[in-house]
Design goal:
This protein has 281 residues and is of the alpha/beta class. The protein contains ten helices and nine strands. The chain has helices spanning 7-14, 31-44, 71-80, 91-94, 113-116, 120-135, 147-159, 189-194, 197-210, 216-228, and strands at residues 2-4, 21-25, 47-51, 85-87, 139-143, 165-169, 233-241, 256-264, 267-275. It has a six-stranded parallel beta sheet with strand order 1-4-3-2-5-6, sandwiched between helices. Strands 7-8-9 form a three-stranded antiparallel beta sheet.
Length: 281
């Protein structure tokens, strides 16, 4: 496994692989990341993982300094998984003095997380575009856990004719339904016990949908009621939206993205499930 700290080192290592899967991460790796790594390796034959806590996707009020990090552990996990190339740059390598360009992806980045985290998706789109240009992967792997991020990156890759395939892996969960997240490490014991309320709410709405409920507001109410039954959970939003445009729906006639954000203690968690028809690729 080659660990590149600079763009030049990465490019020198990349030349050995005709096909390469890329898994972009912010590190503090868990089984969700590793499922993407395994899939990338199986499908592409070689895999690169980037570890970069991207400062431009955190608002000034957000938890950049609190974001968990453990590079030695991450590198050991990636080595064990047979990863070929790791790209772990310092911020100055990615944003040298004078760096000014930013990618705005448009309406799909505006609602939901985009509305609560101003500038977040411009930060994500810009760093992902840079990673695509640096690594030039055949395929890039993202988790459904961050559903709006997937929608934004698909839109960007299509709009800007980026020569790669975007692949999405299922959300990996704890046995009680909690979606794995690097931020789960911040949950106290009580918070951890309360956190599965997010998935319970999504699962309840999914069962209502699968039982024939098509009124989006009824699904939102069901999610809100489940979240409200857990006193440690403070709901930020619940959404029933079109799976590609992310516009809120009145009725769920084809597929929908059910999603939510909530604070559990000091930690903000997001989660989602897709119901009905799978969104077009
Ligand atoms: P992050 O390090 O949080 O930026 O995540 C890196 C990649 O892993 C993103 O594409 C995430 O969507 C994905 N990911 C994070 N958590 C999970 C999970 N529980 N299951 C599957 N993929 C995940």
């Amino acid at each position: 496994m080659r660990v590149a700290r600079t763009i030049a080192e990465l490019r020198a290592g990349r030349a050995a692989f005709p096909r390469l899967g890329l898994v972009p991460t912010m590190g503090f790796l868990h089984a969700g990341h590793m499922s993407l790594v395994r899939r990338a390796r199986a499908e592409c034959g070689a895999v690169a993982v980037s570890i970069f806590v991207n400062p431009t996707q955190f608002a000034p009020t957000e938890d950049l300094s609190r974001y968990p990090r453990d590079m030695p552990r991450d590198l050991a996990l990636l080595e064990d998984a047979g990863v070929d190339l790791v790209f772990a740059p310092e911020p100055a390598e990615i944003y040298p003095p004078g760096h000014a360009s930013r990618i705005e992806v448009g309406p799909v980045s505006e609602p939901l997380e985009g509305a609560r985290r101003p500038g977040h998706f411009a930060g994500v789109a810009t760093v992902v575009a840079k990673l695509f240009n640096i690594v030039t992967p055949t395929r890039a792997y993202f988790g459904q856990k961050d559903a709006q991020q997937v929608a934004v990156i698909r839109r960007m890759a299509r709009d800007l004719d980026m020569p790669l395939e975007v692949v999405v892996g299922d959300t990996v969960r704890e046995p009680d339904g909690l979606a794995l997240s690097s931020r789960n490490v911040h949950l106290s014991e009580e918070d951890r016990a309360a956190a599965p309320a997010l998935f319970r709410a999504l699962d309840r709405a999914r069962r209502l949908h699968d039982g024939g409920e098509r009124d989006a507001e009824a699904l939102r109410r069901a999610m809100l009621a489940t979240l409200a039954s857990e006193p440690r959970v403070e709901t930020d939003y619940v959404s029933v939206a079109h799976p590609v445009t992310l516009r809120e729906l009145d009725r769920v006639d084809a597929g929908a993205l059910l999603s939510m954000a909530a604070r559990v203690g000091r930690t903000r968690l997001i989660d989602n499930v897709v119901v009905g028809e799978a969104p077009p690729r």
